Structure formats: structure tokens, C-alpha cells
């Protein structure tokens, strides 16, 4: 778990965050991480692309997608897969679960302490639990 810095991260905090994850802090990576780590938030790749290039185009779509992949693979950023075409990038670095509203498309955080898993199946031989994520899908009550 990451304990450095607090939201919103300033540029120096973002550089440190990247370095702690073994990521070379290029200007574009800093720009993308700076946008993401303003607060714990759930964003699509399109929203991140638009947010990073707020006024003028500085970072290409390919670079944004590649950088998000790098951030996820190094554990800096969490990928929350709701459906194949509905992926959120989550800048909340604390262990937590989610509630996904099927009607509104909104994803919200649930503190890990508020979910208890009572039983797990036998794991394949030679494996151990790395992480457990719960997504509770809800609909608006009619
Ligand atoms: Zn989250």
C-alpha cells in the first residue's frame, strides 16, 4: 500500500509517486499522473484523454492508453473492469470495493472494512490469494 503524499498530489509528489513505482517520470507521464491524482476518482480512458488535453492537444491518445497500461501494470493505478467496454481507472490507492449503478453508470467506493467475505472456494493448487475485489451491481429501486 502506498503511504506517500496526499490528494491532491503536487507535481513533486507525482514525480515521487512515479519513481516509487519504478516509472521514469517523463513530462507526459507526469501530466497524466498529475491529472489522475488530484483526488481519488474513477475515470474512463476517454475522460483522462480529454482531461489531460484540457485546452490544447499535448498528449496523444496512444500515449495516454500506453501510459494507463504502464500505471496499471506497476500497481500505481487500479483498473476496474465492469464490462469489456466499461473500464474505469481508479486513482484511489487504498484497498476498497465498489458499488456500480447499472442505471446511472456511476461507480462509487466502498471501504474495505465494510465488506466481509465469509468463505472462499478451494484455490487451485500452488496458488494464494493476491487480492479480492467486490463489485456490487445495483439498480435504482422502482
Ligand atoms: Zn474506487
SSE inventory with pairings:
Blueprint: H1 11-20, H2 27-36, E1 42-43, H3 45-52, H4 61-73, E2 78-83, E3 86-90, E4 96-101, E5 107-111, E6 135-138
Parallel strand pairs: 4-6
Antiparallel strand pairs: 1-3, 2-3, 4-5
Helix pairs in contact: 1-2, 2-3
Bound molecules: zinc ion.
The site of zinc ion (ZN) has 6 residues, from strand 4.
Summarize the model shown.
The chain has 142 residues and is an alpha+beta fold.
Overview of the structural elements:
The chain has 142 residues and is α+β, with helices and mostly antiparallel strands. It folds into 2 domains: 11-90, Arc Repressor Mutant, subunit A (Orthogonal Bundle), CATH 1.10.10.10; 96-138, no CATH class. It contains 4 helices and 6 strands, in the order H-H-E-H-H-E-E-E-E-E. The chain has helices at 11-20, 27-36, 45-52, 61-73, and strands spanning 42-43, 78-83, 86-90, 96-101, 107-111, 135-138. A 3-stranded antiparallel β-sheet has the order 1-3-2. The chain has a 3-stranded mixed β-sheet with strand order 5-4-6, with no helix packed on it. Helix 1 crosses helix 2 (27-36) and helix 2 crosses helix 3. The longest helix has 13 residues, at 61-73. It is globular. The mean pLDDT is 92. The chain binds zinc ion. Zinc ion binds next to strand 4.
What is the CATH class of the largest domain? Answer: Mainly Alpha
Task: Indicate the radius of gyration in whole angstroms.
Answer: 17 Å
- Here the CATH topology of the largest domain equals Arc Repressor Mutant, subunit A
What ligands can be seen in this structure? zinc ion
Structural class: alpha+beta
Q: So, the CATH homologous superfamily of the largest domain?
A: Winged helix-like DNA-binding domain superfamily/Winged helix DNA-binding domain
Number of helices: 4
What fraction of residues sit in β-strands?
15-25%
